[in-house]
Amino acid sequence: MKTVTVSGTSVSRIAAKELGDARQWARIMEANGFFDAVIRAPSNVKIPERDANAPTVPST
Asked: Which of 25, 46, 48, 59 is the most exposed, having the fewest neighbouring CB atoms within 10 Å of its CB?
């Protein structure tokens, strides 16, 4: 799993840049245990491998 350092951005923007699909934001939220989709302070964010078949919203 790759890690990137980011700040002042949203999880959907990270998903778009790192996974090529902004709709995979939920996978990043789950991988990091985030509750807020906006990252204000510098943070190390785990980026899961891209999965073309992954759901774009968390399963319930």
From this structure: 59
CB atoms within 10 A of CB 9: 15
Please tell me the distance from the alpha carbon of residue 54 to that of residue 44, in angstroms, as a whole number. Answer: 23
Packed helices 25-32 and 11-19: angle between N→C axes, nearest 10 degrees: 110
pTM value is: 0.82
Separation between Cα atoms, residue 16 and residue 25, nearest integer Å: 8
Tens-place pLDDT, residues 28-51? 999 999 999 999 999 999 999 987
What gap in Å lies between CA 25 and CA 21, rounded to an integer? 8
Q: Give the separation between CA 41 and CA 31, rounded to whole angstroms.
A: 18
Place of tokens 């491998």: 49
